[in-house]
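Same chain as my last thread, 102 residues:
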Amino acid sequence: NSLSADQQGLLQTEIAALNDAMWAETATEDDVAISCITGGDCAIGEAGTMTLVEPSEADLALRDTIATDVVLARWAERCGAECAANWNETVGPILGLTAAAK
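reply #2:
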């Protein structure tokens, strides 16, 4: 760490601001894309004719079951116990999912 405390603080502040700006831009781009593909305002191309469908609680539950029982289980087998434990301590709680090899 050859940066001074002031330099480190400045970097942390600016990176946090950049992170916030990037998430805001992502949300804007999502809104534009949804508007375009569902026939709404579309300044970037031809409007589509898709229908936006919100997933039901059952859809979300099925998604989580497949993610846990298939995707994460297979990944945990390839990744190994230590890797899966690290994921379960970091990402898992954020998503409410657990990676466990079968």
